[in-house]
Specification:
The complex is a heterodimer of chains A (about 280) and B (about 325). Chain A has about 280 residues and is mostly helical. Chain A has 13 helices and no strands. Chain A has one domain: MetI-like fold (Orthogonal Bundle), CATH 1.10.3720.10. In chain A, helix 1 crosses helix 12 and helix 8 packs across helix 9. Chain A is globular. Chain B has about 325 residues and is an alpha+beta fold. Chain B has 2 domains: about 230 residues, 3-Layer(aba) Sandwich (Rossmann fold), CATH 3.40.50.300; about 90 residues, OB fold (Dihydrolipoamide Acetyltransferase, E2P), CATH 2.40.50.140. Chain B is built from 9 helices and 18 strands. In chain B, helix 2 crosses helix 3 and helix 2 runs parallel beside helix 4. Classes of the chains: A mainly alpha (about 280), B alpha+beta (about 325). Chains A and B meet through helix 8 and helix 9 of A and strand 6 and helix 2 of B.
C-alpha cells in the first residue's frame, strides 16, 4: 500500500512541477510568439495562438531602427567585465574571510549584504552627480564599475560559502608540502573551487546582463546595453507590442542560450555543499 | 638531520593559555610520541612545530636554526594528517609529486622517487586513481608517500590512525615503525592511544593541560611513573590506585598496583573481595573485584582460562616490590 501512495504522490508532484515550470516559462514563450505577429495581431482579442501570419518583419524593423549589435556588444562588455573584475576582488576577499576569519568577519559579511537591501533609487542622484563630474556618464567603464560594486556582495557571499566547504586540512597540507600562499591558491584552492567559481561567474553574468535600473539611468546612447534597446520600444511612440517582443527576444536570446548550455554548472553550483 | 628544540614555547588563544612555557628536545632520528587525553594540547604542540600555528612566546629551533617565525613551507618538515588531507582533484601520482613540484625537483628524479615510494607502500597499481577511489588505508599510505618523497628532516604525524578500523590500525602501526627503522628520520607522533605510544615510541611525552607530565622511554614510564596521572594513563588496563589506611601502611597517600602485578587465589591472601564482571580476551582475563574495602573496584589480570564466576570470593596479593607509592600531591615517592 505504501507503494501506491508514493506513486500517487509522484504523479502529483510531477504535475505540480511541470505546471509551475510552464507557468514560469509562459511569458517568455508568449513574447517569442508575439514577436512573429503583426502589430494588429499582437493585440487581437481573443489572443491568437498559432493561426496568424508568421512574419519576420518586426526583426527587420527593429534591426533597421536601432543597431542591435552595438547594444549586444555593450551588454557583453558590461556583464562579463563587471563579473571578471568582481571575481578578481572577491577571490582573495572570500579566501581571507573563509580561512583567516577575524572577530568581525561575520559582521562585515552581513553589512555587505545589507547594501543589497538599499533601494537603488536612494543613491541615484548622488551617484549620477559623481558620475557626471568624473565624466563616467554613458561610458562602459562607468557601468562596469557600478555593476561590479552592485554585485560584489553576492559574488563574495557565494565564493565564501564554497570556500567554507573546503577542508582547511587540505590547505594546511599544501603549506606543509612547501606551497607558498600563491601556489596554495593557484594549485589547491582554485581547482577545488572551480565548480563554485564557475557557477558564481555564470550567475553574475546573468544578473549583470539583466540589470536595468543603473544601465537605463546612467547611459544614453554610446554605452547603452540591450536593456536600453528594449526600453526604447516601450513608451515614447505608444506601445508596439510586436516590435517590443522582437527586441526582447533578441535581448534575452544570448543569455537564454548560455543558461541552457551551462544549466548543469548553474544547478550544481547553487546546490554545492547542500549534500555532503 | 632533524633535531627539534622547543625553548619556553608558549601558546595562548586570546586569554586562554593552552600551552604554558614548555621546554623539550627531540633528538635526531628519534621516534617521539606525544600522548595525553583529548584537549591536552598535544595536537596544538605539533602544529606549533609544523608552523601551522604561531607561538605566543619562546623559540623553536630545527637543526639549530631559529624556525620560530618561519612559514610551514620553509621548515623542511612533512606532516601526515588524521583526515589524510589528500588533494581530491589530483591523481595519486600527482598528490605524491606535489611537494617535489613545489621544491623544484627535476621531473625524472620525481618519477624515480614516486616509483620507489609506491613500491614501498604497495601503491603501484593505484598511481593513476583519484583519492576518492581509494580505501582509508590506501589513502593513509598515499599521505605517507607524499610525506616521504620530499625527504624531510622530520615527519609529523597527527593521529594518523584514528580514522582506520582496528585491524588496519595494527597493520599501519607496524608499517610506520618499519618505515622509521628504515629511514631513521626523526618522527613526532601525536596520539591519544597509549598502546600506539607504548609500541612505537623511543620516547614518550605525556601531556596534560598543555604541561609535560613526564618524558621517558616507554618502559621507564611504565616502571616508574612520576605521578598518579602518568601512572593511570600508561598501561592497559589502568593501574589500581588505592588511598586510605592501606596506603598509609606503606607510608604513602596513594599506592598503585598494576592489574598484572596482583596474584589471585581462592584460598587466601592479603585482600579479600568478590568477583564482579570478568572480561575474557582469550589470552588474558581481566577480573573486576569489588568489596575489598580499598577502592570501588580493583582490576586484576589472570590467565586466559580461569574458573571464576561472578560472586565468587577471592583473595588478592600484590607483588611487594611492584607497589608504586605517591604523596598527597600525587608525586612519586622513592
Amino acid at each position: 500500500m505504501a507503494r501506491a501512495v508514493s506513486t500517487r504522490r509522484k504523479v502529483f508532484t510531477t504535475a505540480l512541477a511541470w505546471g509551475l515550470g510552464l507557468a514560469i516559462f509562459f511569458p517568455i514563450f508568449w513574447t517569442v510568439l508575439t514577436s512573429f505577429k503583426t502589430e494588429a495581431e499582437a493585440i487581437a482579442d481573443p489572443p491568437l495562438w498559432v493561426n496568424f501570419h508568421w512574419t519576420l518583419e518586426n526583426y527587420v524593423t527593429v534591426q533597421e531602427r536601432s543597431d542591435y549589435f552595438r547594444h549586444f556588444w555593450n551588454s557583453v562588455v558590461i556583464s562579463v567585465g563587471s563579473t571578471l573584475v568582481g571575481l578578481i576582488i572577491a577571490v582573495p576577499a572570500a579566501w581571507a574571510m573563509a580561512f583567516v576569519p577575524g572577530k568581525r568577519t561575520k559582521d562585515v559579511l552581513m553589512w555587505m549584504l545589507s547594501t543589497k537591501m538599499l533601494p537603488p533609487v536612494g543613491v541615484l542622484v548622488p551617484l549620477y552627480l559623481i558620475f557626471r563630474n568624473l565624466g563616467l556618464l554613458d561610458t562602459r567603464t562607468g557601468l562596469v564599475i557600478v555593476l561590479t560594486l552592485i554585485n560584489l556582495p553576492i559574488i563574495i557571499w557565494m565564493l565564501y560559502t564554497y570556500f567554507k566547504e573546503i577542508p582547511v586540512d587540505i590547505l594546511e597540507a599544501a603549506r606543509m608540502d612547501g606551497a607558498g600562499l600563491r601556489n596554495e591558491i593557484l594549485y589547491v584552492l582554485t581547482p577545488m573551487a572551480v565548480p563554485g567559481i564557475a557557477s558564481t561567474l555564470l550567475l553574475n553574468i546573468i544578473l549583470a546582463w539583466n540589470e536595468a535600473f543603473w544601465t537605463l539611468n546612467l547611459t544614453a546612447a554610446k554605452a547603452a546595453p540591450l536593456t536600453a534597446f528594449i526600453a526604447s520600444y516601450s513608451s515614447p511612440e505608444g506601445l508596439f507590442y510586436a516590435k517590443l517582443s522582437a527586441a526582447s527576444t533578441m535581448a534575452i536570446a544570448p543569455i537564454l542560450i548560455m543558461g541552457w548550455f551551462s544549466q548543469k554548472q548553474l544547478v550544481r553550483g547553487l546546490t554545492f555543499g547542500a549534500v555532503k | 638531520m632533524g633535531r627539534i628544540t622547543l625553548d619556553k614555547v608558549r601558546k595562548a588563544f586570546g586569554p586562554v593559555e593552552v600551552i604554558p612555557p614548555l621546554d623539550l628536545t627531540i633528538e635526531d632520528g628519534e621516534f617521539v610520541v606525544f600522548v595525553g587525553p583529548s584537549g591536552c594540547g598535544k595536537s596544538t604542540l605539533l602544529r606549533l612545530i609544523a608552523g601551522l600555528e604561531d607561538v605566543s612566546g619562546g623559540e623553536i629551533r630545527i637543526d639549530r636554526v631559529d624556525a620560530t617565525t618561519l612559514p610551514p613551507a620553509k621548515r623542511g618538515l612533512a606532516m601526515v594528517f588524521q583526515s589524510y588531507a589528500l588533494y581530491p582533484h589530483m591523481s595519486v601520482r600527482k598528490n605524491i609529486a606535489f611537494p617535489m613540484k613545489m621544491a623544484g625537483v627535476p621531473k625524472d628524479e620525481q618519477d624515480r622517487r614516486i616509483e620507489a615510494a609506491a613500491k614501498a607502500l604497495n601503491l603501484t597499481d593505484y598511481l593513476d586513481r583519484r583519492p576518492g577511489q581509494l580505501s582509508g588505508g590506501q589513502r593513509q599510505r598515499v599521505a605517507i608517500g607524499r610525506a616521504i618523497v620530499r625527504e624531510p628532516s622530520a615527519f609529523l604525524f597527527d593521529e594518523p590512525l584514528s580514522n582506520l578500523d582496528a585491524a588496519l590500525r595494527v597493520g599501519m602501526r607496524l608499517e610506520i615503525s618499519e618505515l622509521h627503522a628504515r629511514l631513521k628520520t626523526t618522527m613526532v607522533y601525536v596520539t591519544h592511544d597509549q598502546v600506539e605510544a607504548m609500541t612505537m615510541a623511543d620516547k614518550i611525552v605525556v601531556l596534560r593541560a598543555g604541561r609535560i607530565e613526564q618524558v621517558g622511554a616507554p618502559l621507564e614510564l611504565y616502571q616508574s611513573p612520576r605521578n598518579t596521572f602518568v601512572a593511570g594513563f600508561i598501561g592497559s588496563p589502568k593501574m589500581n590506585l588505592i588511598e586510605g589506611p592501606e596506603a598509609a601502611r606503606h607510608d604513602a597517600h596513594t599506592i598503585g598496583v598494576r592489574p598484572e602485578h596482583i596474584a589471585v587465589s581462592t584460598e587466601g591472601g592479603q585482600w579479600q573481595g568478590r568477583v564482579g564482571v570478568s572480561e575474557h580476551l582469550g589470552s588474558d582475563t581481566f577480573l573486576h573485584v569489588h568489596d575489598t574495602g580499598l577502592a570501588e573496584a580493583l582490576t586484576v589480570r589472570v590467565g586466559g582460562e580461569v574458573a571464576l564466576h561472578q560472586g565468587d570470593t577471592v583473595w588478592l596479593s600484590p607483588e611487594a616490590d611492584k607497589i608504586h607509592r605517591f604523596d598527597a600531591d600525587g608525586l612519586r615517592i622513592g
